[in-house]
Give the backbone structure.
Amino acid sequence: MRFSFAREIRPSTFSQFDPELTSLVSKAAERYNITQPALTAPIKALENELGGEPASTRLLRIEGTSSAHSQLLCWRNTMTIRTTKILLDGGDASETERIKRLIGLLDGQTTNPSLIAKNPEVKKMVAAEHGLSIREQMDEYRKIVQAVSPLVGDAGVSIEVFAEEDTTADEMLDQGREMFTWIPNAFIKYPCTRGGLLAAQESVRSGIRVNITLCFSQAQAAAVYAATKGAKVPVYVSPFVGRLDDIGENGVDLVANIKRMYAGGDGHVAVLAASIRNLQQLLYCFSLEAELATVPANVLEDWARNGFAMPGSDFKYTATGKPILYQELTLDQPWQSFDIQHELTRKGLAKFAADYRATLSQTV
Ligand code: G3P
């Protein structure tokens, strides 16, 4: 794999560069609601240190400055040129804080029942009380997203409804309506099933932002588009890359195919690449210009270790499975006409439900 690292800036260009960098950071601080931005202190220190003297001579005498500064430069370039919003895929606000400190910002976060079941506080409570009641589980979920909400930017926090195969659209909708009141930047995650799409259709009509999860096929993404047509609120669709790789298919192809299909549409659905398991997949999603990507902490840490690398024009993705071929689908038809069945949607729903149920007490 080859990375194209951020352009190198020579010390002699610092004087013209720093004001731009500083203004970018303050804009980011405003946009991402960062009160103590991780990067402000080093920038200020650097500016003070550099004041008045030629940067090149001063830099030689300031221990550690050049590495802090080169990190800032990489960060600045990456954040400027990227088009993909970065979300953390997690269920623990302390992890969100740690990753935000590492990266400098997070555009949003996605959660799901499996991630919530792994939350340290939830695990502690489940162990101490031999499981939670349904209300306690909801309360814990609410507290987690309320802690995460102010830490992230305008891509919001996705909160997933509990659903099994026989959960009705109305049951999902009731949960979605309640969850949407928890935080000002909520997106409600519904599964890409008949019930989930009915709930999503109704949700967008009443101004509820949605994220359709467990998407494994282009036909499902076409159905999401058709079911939410006319939405005045943002709509996300989440194709699951890693889980397609797990069954021997080249998961990133689905992201590429949906992007290509949506290019002929009205742009009301944003593609949120999910189930990202490694840096290669993330970089490929960047190169496809997926509108958003949700990424687990370990992959974001790897990205930071690699200097916030971006894919260059010579970036090559090493496919791991058999290609997923593009299908010619007409978006302009009723969503019920698309075949939305997928084995992985069924399995994914069952796994989320099992992880959720494992947090409940036996008497519930
Ligand atoms: O947010 C859901 C998704 O990202 C799940 O990822 O690794 O469990 O397939 P994974």
Remarks:
- The CA atoms of residues 250 and 319 lie 6 Å apart.
- Residues 89, 110, 112, 240, 242-243, 274-275, 277, 294 surround SN-glycerol-3-phosphate (CB under 6 Å).
- The longest helix spans residues 14-31.
